[in-house]
């Protein structure tokens, strides 16, 4: 009988932990300027910081969808990392120095990309 009670307690606590983890997941979108597939890779790589589970940038709409754990990071932190990689977004603008490090094709302000 004791084993059965312990078994039930383990199952119940496992279920509670799983539910708590699911509640700690959020998905948000933000606009990120960019041009091409190279931009997509750079933007998504910049967005993958601790706590981010998925980051997908749409080249046509310029929208980045981020699924993350609010207990570990925030959209503000993600936005800062993306701006540091040279890409302006809804929350943070890249510095000229950061922007100028982008490959010529990724210079979204000049619209020189042929993709």
Q: How would you describe what is shown here?
A:
The protein has 115 residues and is an alpha+beta fold. The protein is built from four helices and three strands, in the order αβαββαα. It has a three-stranded antiparallel beta sheet with strand order 1-3-2. The model has no long low-confidence stretch (mean pLDDT 88).
Gyration radius, rounded = 20 Å
Q: Tell me which oligomeric state these chains represent.
A: single chain
Compute the number of strand runs: 3
Mean pLDDT: 88
Which bin fits the share of residues in helices?
Answer: 40-55%
- Largest sheet, order of strands side by side? 1-3-2
Report the end-to-end length measured between terminal Cα atoms: 68 Å
User: Which runs of at least 5 residues are low in confidence (pLDDT < 50)?
Assistant: none
**How would you sum up the major sheet?**
3 strands, antiparallel
The backbone outline, from C-alpha atoms, is elongated
How would you classify the helix and strand content by structural class? alpha+beta
β-sheet strand percentage: 15-25%
Q: Please work out how many helical segments DSSP would assign.
A: 4
H/E order of the elements?
HEHEEHH
Summed up:
Helices cover 42% and strands 16% of the residues. It is α+β, with helices and mostly antiparallel strands.
């Amino acid at each position: 009988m004791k084993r059965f009670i312990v078994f039930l307690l383990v199952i119940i606590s496992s279920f509670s932990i799983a539910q708590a983890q699911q509640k700690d997941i959020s998905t948000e979108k933000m606009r990120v300027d960019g041009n091409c597939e190279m931009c997509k890779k750079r933007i998504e790589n910049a967005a993958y910081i601790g706590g981010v589970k998925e980051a997908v940038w749409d080249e046509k709409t310029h929208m980045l969808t981020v699924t993350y754990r609010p207990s570990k990071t925030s959209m503000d932190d993600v936005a800062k990392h993306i701006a540091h990689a040279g890409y302006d977004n809804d929350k943070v603008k890249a510095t000229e120095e950061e922007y100028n490090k982008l490959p010529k094709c990724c210079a979204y302000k000049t619209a020189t990309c042929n993709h």
